[in-house]
Amino acid sequence: AESSHSKIQSDKAELSFTFENNGEKRFLTNKFQSVGLWEKGSSSFYGDQSLLQQINTTEIGVKNDLQSLWNKNNYTFETRSFIQYNHLPSKINLNDKILENINLNHFYTDNYFSILRKKGYFMQRYSTGFTIQSSNIQNGYSAYLTPIWQLNKGRWMNTLTVPLMLTHFPGKDFTRPSANPSLSVRYKYNYA
Predict the structure, then answer these.
(1) What pTM, to 2 d.p., does this model score?
(2) Does residue 21 have a pLDDT over 70?
């Protein structure tokens, strides 16, 4: 006769903080979040041989999103910085012997600056920034420039976007430029 027994125990903790300052000349917001998730699972099998398997997984994550907007003359300026870090350790035991011990770390950040100008029916926005990602598996970074032109007149909204990006992964000796232009034409049927 064989039998088995399994159980999973989960715990989660979360901490969030948001700050906003919506002033007359400047808008500032900061959103911080940290999350911890701990899971422990065990399975016991009984029969000709007894077997005890234990799996422990943990996820600890922290992220922060900082953004500021301000106006000067006919221009709107924006800066944004997003940072995220995750730590993912896990362990597998079989009959109290460690079979696998994994420690994964991942860091990502995206930072940009943009200028927006509206004049009559025409809007133009230019954003430039960079991203960095780093982990136990792979590291890489990219730089980008994203111009957006938009014409809003009556029921019509036409948008042309031409994102340009240069991506580099040093460990793989990989560099790739890319462009992803898009054109959007929208017509609002029930325009008030």
Answers:
(1) 0.80
(2) yes
